[in-house]
Design brief:
By secondary structure, this protein is α+β, with helices and mostly antiparallel strands. The protein is built from 4 helices and 8 strands; from the N terminus they run H-E-H-E-H-H-E-E-E-E-E-E.
């Protein structure tokens, strides 16, 4: 009787082993941060140039865009944080380069600390996401510090 059912038992055992191996392969495991899109809309008020304070205008004159920020700098270095944020917001490197080339520098958000200056550049990606990308000059290149979606709040596990 054992000889009669042995081939079926071996076939079932082989199938279970195959299933276990396929489910536990490393290639199937993806360590992406869990993201979910929140549908809340954030309204950002527009500020026209005539509303600027004189100290902001003076700050612009002290650091013209031509000095310190080169849109054509290569290489473009993506920080770990920026890569994570890009992944959460479905933004690729070509869109970052497009914003760098065609975006508008938000002079009110330029920061200067012990690590150096950071330049926030804002614009719309080809899929109509309104983003702010923060760049920091480093040597002959530019570091992409972070990527912010100005219209949509994304749940993201980036640190």
């Amino acid at each position: 009787m054992l000889k009669k059912y042995l081939p079926y038992l071996l076939l079932i055992a082989a199938g279970l082993l195959y299933y276990f191996v396929k489910e536990n392969q490393r290639a199937n495991r993806v360590n992406k941060p869990k993201t979910e899109q929140v549908t809340e809309r954030i309204t950002v008020p527009a500020i026209l140039p005539q509303d600027e304070k004189t100290e902001e205008v003076e700050a612009r004159q002290d650091d013209p865009v031509g000095q310190g920020f080169n849109r054509n700098a290569t290489p473009l270095i993506f920080s770990k944080h920026a890569k994570c944020r890009m992944d959460c917001r479905n933004i690729d490197e070509s869109e970052v380069k497009e914003i760098l080339k065609n975006g508008t520098i938000n002079h009110k958000k330029i920061q200067n600390d012990k690590r150096g200056k950071t330049y926030p550049v804002e614009g719309f990606t080809r899929d109509k996401q309104h983003v702010r990308i923060v760049f920091a000059p480093k040597g002959e290149g530019l570091v992409v510090v972070t990527v912010i979606d100005l219209d949509t709040e994304w749940k993201c596990d980036c640190k």
